[in-house]
Design a protein that fits this description.
The protein folds into three domains: about 45 residues; about 70 residues, Ubiquitin-like (UB roll) (Roll), CATH 3.10.20.310; about 130 residues, Cell division protein FtsQ/DivIB (Rossmann fold, 3-Layer(aba) Sandwich). The chain is built from five helices and 13 strands. It is rod-shaped. The protein starts with a helix and ends with a strand.
Length: about 250
């Protein structure tokens, strides 16, 4: 009987120890879950480490600071250091017409560093928009840009090709006294260029560089023989030679 009594006491002690272990484990897990909940609530609270400073790494010429602030304000309660949505803000900033690209970095504990690259303008497009240097249409008013940039005209889908044609002709003509004021490229890819001296060059669809080179070669002779102020256009769409259209509607072929 004495031996049985000892075993019974040992069994009770084991049960109490197991209960204490389980209770300790439950308390530990409860404390852990509560701590995680508290941390999550603290992190997502807009009053915890709010973004209070925005640093623009470069001075912007055309992008208004107010337009960037408006995008940041639209984040509402998400605008704190931990849960600010960088990808969403970047997407909205890059959707602004004057923005080419944007990158954003968080700087502990309350700052966003914004690096915004503005569009690099190459031309006025159809007198209602602009083109960047990649031939992409920028849907902003061209007012104020007409004096400093060439005017290009064509279909939006051909904007890059039209800019490429202009760049090639510009390189060919830059050593001459002629400057291009306007270049048009129609749906058939037939090209005309208006020079700043008022003469229209009709180049057609093929051999555009060769035709402009022909014009540059023969123009000194034209200048000697004719009053160039009376020239309306020069049609270079011939295998050899060219035609001159005069402002009084006469045409002479050479």
């Amino acid at each position: 009987m004495k031996k049985f009594h000892i075993l019974n006491k040992l069994t009770k002690k084991l049960k109490v120890g197991r209960f204490v272990s389980i209770l300790f484990f439950v308390c530990l897990m409860s404390g852990l879950f509560y701590s995680l909940y508290f941390i999550k609530h603290w992190i997502t609270d807009d009053k915890t480490l709010p973004i209070t400073y925005v640093s623009l790494t470069e001075q912007q010429k055309y992008i208004s600071v107010e337009s960037v602030k408006k995008i940041l304000r639209s984040q509402g309660t998400k605008l704190n250091f931990f849960n600010v949505n960088i990808a969403e803000i970047q997407k909205k900033i890059e959707a602004l017409p004057w923005v080419y690209s944007a990158s954003i970095r968080k700087h502990w504990p309350d700052t966003l560093d914004l690096h915004i690259v503005e569009q690099s303008i190459s031309a006025v497009w159809n007198n209602k928009a602009l083109l960047n240097r990649f031939g992409e249409v920028i849907h902003v008013s061209p007012k104020g840009f007409e004096k400093n940039f060439v005017v290009l005209k064509g279909e939006d889908k051909d904007a890059n090709q039209t800019l490429d044609i202009y760049n090639k002709l510009f390189q060919l003509m830059k050593v001459s006294k002629f400057k291009i004021a306007m270049l048009s490229n129609d749906e058939r890819h037939s090209t005309n260029i208006m020079l700043k001296n008022g003469i229209l060059l009709r180049l057609g669809k093929e051999q555009k560089l060769d035709r402009v080179q022909r014009f540059l070669s023969v123009f000194p002779l034209i200048e000697i023989k004719y009053n160039i102020q009376r020239i309306d256009y020069i049609d270079l769409r011939y295998d050899t030679g060219f035609a001159i259209g005069w402002k009084n509607q006469q045409i002479s072929k050479h």
